[in-house]
Write a structure and sequence with these properties.
This protein has about 400 residues and is mainly alpha-helical. Helix content is about 80%, strand content about 5%. Among the domains are: about 30-60; about 75-165, no CATH class. The protein has a two-stranded antiparallel ribbon. Helix 4 packs antiparallel against helix 5 (about 120-145) and helix 7 packs antiparallel against helix 8 (about 190-195).
């Protein structure tokens, strides 16, 4: 439809021009004394139009002729950029394939082709980032070859190229790569320094958190490793089961590293409520607390979630954890200030009466009665525990407690 309209408009212009030229009696007179030249108006208009077209074509030809050097320079730059990009791709392919010598040679060849760009040009800044990435690839290949001088030289040159504000994003990659190199060299201090130079947003990325976790473990900073692991679990960078297992191990390690009860309290307060409710963590903290001479009432407060879990959800606690819980409560009862509170007395008695076939509960109730001076009842409960249990080690301990109670009564 558009072509038809253009054709109709062209016919209209042609018809109007023909009518104008056919019925135009105008003339143009030029006076050049002593001459006089009369020209038709149609001829003058035709000559002016032809002259304008010739002048326009001449100017365009002159501009095209004058732009030949710029076009040649642009072609040379584009050709050089194609060679640089091709060399960069080859370097990356060789790096991924494990051909580190070829990768470094390809990156260095691309660097030799790279021109020093102007500081104020956008393309120059792009070339600067490209040059920095070539240095990084060459440094990574040198690191794989354990050529540290070449690696450090390329890294320094790449860092100098990225001195402008536009290179901030690439600088973060340089810092992360330097931290990993330092970690591979078993230099945890330098790795932590590189990680500390990262901006706040980059420091919370998964890669940075994983590096920080490895550095913290290498330095023996359990608290920092635990905090970093929490962020990794939150970002789903670690599997849920593996993450909980690692958190449990680190929390227990943080507590067991304490030398005095005050340090245990400080470490316990740094844990999250979910971590405190973990049976292994609470049992480890209570046993270590009692071993260092801590108050038995405090240990029983830490063990309360584990006790409720054993009573209400017995399937979520293992037999080994049940035995450790009874051992920890027994250790608290053995102290001079270890007499349980009325609430604990009610809990133990209710659990023992609810499940009279449980040897552990019978044993714990017997120890509690012996601590309170209820020797007859304690002797009865301990005898039931010895008769019910099938674990030889536990049966030996129950028999030993029963013998000690018998001697005490005699």
């Amino acid at each position: 439809m558009r072509a038809v309209l253009w054709l109709m408009a062209l016919f209209g212009v042609a018809a109007a021009s023909a009518l104008f030229a056919a019925g135009n009696p105008g003339t143009v007179t030029l006076f050049w004394p002593p001459y006089r030249i009369d020209l038709s108006l149609n001829l003058v208009l035709l000559v002016l139009g032809a002259g304008f077209v010739l002048l326009h074509l001449a100017l365009r030809g002159f501009a095209a002729f004058a732009s030949i050097p710029a076009q040649a320079r642009r072609w040379r730059v584009q050709h050089r950029e194609r060679l640089v990009h091709a060399s960069l791709v080859d370097a990356l392919v060789h790096l991924v394939a494990g051909r580190f010598v070829r990768s470094r040679k390809a990156a260095e060849h691309a660097l030799s082709l790279q021109l020093a760009p102007d500081a104020g040009d956008d393309a120059a800044r792009s070339n600067a980032r490209l040059q920095a990435m070539l240095h990084l690839v060459a440094a990574e290949s040198a690191h794989a070859l354990q050529d540290r001088p070449v690696r450090d030289a390329h890294f320094q040159q790449g860092s100098e190229v990225l001195g402008s504000p536009d290179g901030a994003a690439a600088q973060e990659g340089f810092f992360l790569r330097a931290a990993r190199w330092a970690l591979d060299d078993h230099d945890a201090g330098s790795a932590m320094q590189w990680l500390d130079r990262l901006p706040q947003g980059a420091a919370r990325r998964t890669l940075a958190l994983r590096l920080r976790f490895r550095v913290a473990r290498m330095q023996g900073k359990t608290a920092l490793a635990l905090e970093t692991l929490r962020l990794l679990v939150k970002h789903r960078a670690v599997g849920k089961s593996n993450g909980l297992s690692l958190v449990r191990a680190l929390a227990l390690e943080l507590i067991l590293a304490s030398k005095v009860p005050a340090q245990i309290t400080q470490a316990w307060n740094t844990l999250d409520p979910a971590e405190r409710a973990m049976p292994d963590v609470a049992l480890g903290a209570a046993r270590h607390w009692l071993a260092l001479g801590g108050d038995a009432a405090q240990s029983r407060q830490w063990l309360l979630p584990v006790w409720e879990l054993m009573v209400n959800k017995a399937k979520e606690i293992t037999p080994e954890q049940r035995l450790q819980l009874v051992r920890a409560l027994e250790s608290g009862l053995g102290q001079q200030s270890g007499s349980p509170e009325a609430a604990w007395l009610a809990r133990i008695e209710a659990a023992q009466m609810a499940d009279p076939r449980d040897a552990l509960l019978q044993y714990l109730a017997g120890v509690m009665c012996a601590r309170l001076g209820l020797w007859g009842k304690a002797q009865h409960l301990l005898r039931q525990s010895v008769a019910i249990t099938t674990d030889l080690e536990f049966k030996r301990d129950a028999q030993r407690a029963l013998d000690a109670l018998t001697q005490r009564r005699d």
